[in-house]
Design a protein that fits this description.
This protein is α/β, with parallel strands linked by helices and 338 residues long. The chain is built from 9 helices and 14 strands. The structure holds zinc ion.
Length: 338
């Protein structure tokens, strides 16, 4: 007899557990929030988890990104792969799909199609608004969560029922959802992820819940819960009467992103194209040092900058937060491949 989910089944019921087993959840981002949610959802026995992340494991992640080990950081494994490796050891009965990619307006609809719900674990607001547009368009619940410092924020968007993220944009203070230099402590992450996973389980098992925006500061021991039903905006361009999903349009895309809390810039080519890391290395080996190459990425140092190049042509350039400078460095490495 399989006793694995016995304690959970006592709580959500046999039917509830079957619904959990049949679900497919996509987690967008595999940093601190994504790691915490993914581990809880894998242990809960979600039938399929898709984990999407654009980055790789670094030593500075280990303080709070619970799925990763020193070995992952040494090997610079992409987070999606390292997460899958760890989660499959935790639960070999479920299906885990790892995608190393940047979520954008080109790919979001395809990514979330046929999923039961979306767990938000991104580190930037631009991506969240793209996900929000696609979630409303495809009518898929979107479990929003954010944290910075000791502060956290969570609410769930149910298309056509609750306000969407775009409706709430003026009510959610920028300083609380934009990563900056204040740092973060992991207890704040754990609380947001716990709220997110609770709402996910409630959605999957058909349990009714009020649209409540929860926020807290665990350091100051403060919290609040506000019913946001009345904040749905009829003029919202994402969920209102005359909607056009503005964040799914290309003009909202940037090709360079300054990465949250890091002295680094991501460069994203306008079209995704598979490049050969081995050929790239052979061509540039005389100008680079400190090379690590694995099946997913090539990391090397050129002058004073470290560049990490992925197979889809994306790169993260460290040691700068100037997009132009990052682009110049990128072109030294990649221009002939694209
Ligand atoms: Zn809206």
């Amino acid at each position: 007899m399989n006793t694995r989910y016995k304690k959970q089944e006592l709580f959500v019921g046999k039917t509830g557990q079957q619904l959990v087993r049949q679900a497919h959840i996509i987690i967008i981002g595999a940093g601190a929030l994504g790691s915490a949610s993914a581990e809880m959802l894998a242990r809960a026995g979600i039938g399929k988890l898709t984990i999407v992340d654009r980055d790789y494991v670094e030593w500075s992640n280990l303080q709070r990104q619970q799925l990763y080990t020193e070995d992952d950081a040494t090997k610079k494994l992409p987070k999606a792969i390292a997460a899958k490796n760890r989660l499959q050891k935790i639960n070999s009965e479920i299906t885990i799909e790892a995608l190393i990619m940047d979520v954008n307006s080109h790919n979001i609809e395809q990514l979330i199609a046929n999923t039961s719900l979306i767990v938000d674990a991104t580190d930037n607001f631009e991506t969240r608004l793209i996900v929000n547009d696609a979630a409303v368009k495809l009518q898929i619940p979107f479990v929003f969560g954010a944290c910075v410092g000791s502060y956290g924020l969570q609410f769930t968007i149910i298309p056509e029922v609750t306000p969407c993220l775009h409706c709430l944009i003026d009510h959610v203070s920028d300083q609380h959802i934009t990563c900056d230099t204040v740092g973060i402590i992991s207890p704040a992450v754990q609380i947001v992820a716990s709220y997110q996973v609770t709402q996910a389980l409630q959605l999957l098992t058909g349990t009714y819940f009020e649209p409540i925006l929860k926020s807290f500061d665990i350091w100051k021991d403060e919290s609040s819960a506000i019913n946001i039903s009345s904040l749905r905006n009829n003029n919202c361009l994402t969920c209102g009467m005359d909607r056009n999903y503005p964040f799914l349009s290309l003009h909202h895309e940037t090709k360079t992103d300054i990465l949250c809390g890091r002295d680094a810039v991501q460069i994203r080519p306008s079209t995704n194209r598979s490049i050969s890391l081995k050929n790239t290395y052979e061509r540039i080996q005389h100008i680079v040092t400190h090379v690590i190459i694995n099946s997913y990425l090539l990391s090397c140092t050129i002058e004073n900058n470290r560049i990490v190049l992925f197979k889809d042509g994306r790169a993260i350039i460290h040691g700068t937060h100037q997009p132009d400078e990052a682009r110049t460095i990128y072109n030294k490495i990649v221009q002939h491949n694209l």
